[in-house]
Amino acid sequence: MEYLKSKWRIWFRSLDGDHDNKITNEDMNMSAKKFEEIRKLIGDKGPSGSEFDNTNWWNNYIFRKGPGVAMTMDEFVGALEDYYQKDKAAFRQEMERCFGDISAFVTDNMDRPIQEQEFAFGFKVFGQEDAGQVSKAYQLFTAAHGQPTVRHIVDAWVQFIVDDDENKQDMIKEAFGN
């Protein structure tokens, strides 16, 4: 369990955009601005008419004490732990929806290749701005999959959040350098 909790702490830090050790509506608003930047970057490559409801995403998957209710790292990790231990299969399904919802904003083609610039920007949205670390992560994806696709990225995020086998390579964990 400690391995998963260490990854959930990484995820928390990636969501805590203002680095005040709690996730709040301010972090959600910072996230919304980053998603607008993604929309500009992907332009015509994204699905037509696709809008990402950032508030809904945060309320469904991040704010685990209720819509918009701020959480400390311990509260966030504890809520994930409770749900994971209650029903691992349901937890996995929720995380598949969580990251699937983001991917649907980017493309309706899960097999669409992701270029390195998009990859780097996507990690920036989740708080990883160390270009060297992101480049290393992109190389891990290309070594494993050739040209990474949206599906590869989504699957890697789901693995990062739900997989408790620390012997498996975890590309998202490596991307964050922790």
Automatic annotation (TrEMBL):
The reply on keyword Hydrolase is: no
Gene Ontology molecular function: calcium ion binding
Question: Which keywords accompany this UniProt record?
Answer: Calcium
UniProt keyword NADP present: no
Residues forming the EF-hand domain are 3-38
**Coiled-coil intervals, chain numbering:** none
Q: Can you name this protein?
A: Sarcoplasmic calcium-binding protein-like isoform X2
- Natural source organism: Crassostrea virginica (Eastern oyster)
Q: Which gene encodes it?
A: LOC111136791
